[in-house]
User: Fold this.
Amino acid sequence: MLQHQIFFALVLLMCFCCFAGESFNFGQFNSLTMPNRRKFIQSSVLGTTALLLNRITKAGGQYNAVKNNPLAISTWDAGLEANREAWKVLSAGGRALDAVEKGVMHTEASKNCCVGLKANPDRDGFVTLDACIMDENFNCGSVAFLERIKHPISVARRVMEKTPHVMLVGEGAQQFAIAEGFPLEAQQLSPDAEKNYREWLKKSEYHPPEINVESQKGHGPFAPARLNGDWNHDTIGMLAMDAQGNLSGSCTTSGAGFKMRGRVGDSPIIGSGLYVDNEVGACTATGQGEDVIRVAGAHSVVEWMRQGLSPEAACKKVIEKIVRIKKEKAREIQVAFIAVNKNGQVGAFSIHGGFDYAIRTKTAEKLVKAKSIFKEKPKND
Ligand code: SD4
Assistant:
């Protein structure tokens, strides 16, 4: 549509310039020699085209900060509780950055398959954590392959605020965390993770994460549907807008259960698992990290919003691209994006049905089913 508009405008402009050049007797124009006239036409066309493109782009993605209407959105149903923590900050007039840190810290401290130290380990039996955070000024921080630290999201924030770097990994990230006063936790699996790991060791087979871990049963030891009687859940990504209209985001995970040692997914990678552009909007991802990385997922979604697409349509564009790239294999993987734009509109899209995201605003607290390319698999319990 946009291309058509631009093409049409260009044709019109060319016609006008040619017509003007040949038929009109404007003093200045006619005083030009033929080569100069051509140059004049060229530069007019180029100049006006640039102006036009600029106008069209701005019209496509015109955003005004929404003030005094804070909101938080998060991936999966665990996002409801995380949003509640974030809301304590937002409703008190706090900063979106504080909200997205506090919100996901709640999930990091809880028992679940996929976030924090109680999550499933890698195939060597160690829990390794990835997280990143980004504020309204393009400041960002990230940690990956971090072990024995309870709150990787807070370490990511310290990387952002206290180092000249964006990303620290492994031992270096752990050293930094300890130097910053984060306690080194015991090298020990939670009882549920221990049980899952023992079960997994029987076959020691790695396969990609099950689609919708939280809502499927019967997927063996990979990630249990329930942990301690509660429904399990996946990576948490959270986006918030504060009362000033500023955006921030966070993402934290233990990655894929029983992954290769050293494997890092999309979640700590700025532009893949999370991206925030305070002029346009923000996006975070969950699902098969490798396939989010190869399309620079979160950044791509934000760029589509800049072109004027709604958050849902922008998420859909990038999901469609992944499905196009993966072809038949897309049926076996789940990827989902959630996004918010500067106007406070939210949206999401996933490859498979069954992906829920949690919304919290002044007037609403709810779980929303994202639209998807493929329908949700029937639940088998
Ligand atoms: C990863 N994206 O490490 C994460 C996993 C995830 O829902 O989000 N699972 O690839």
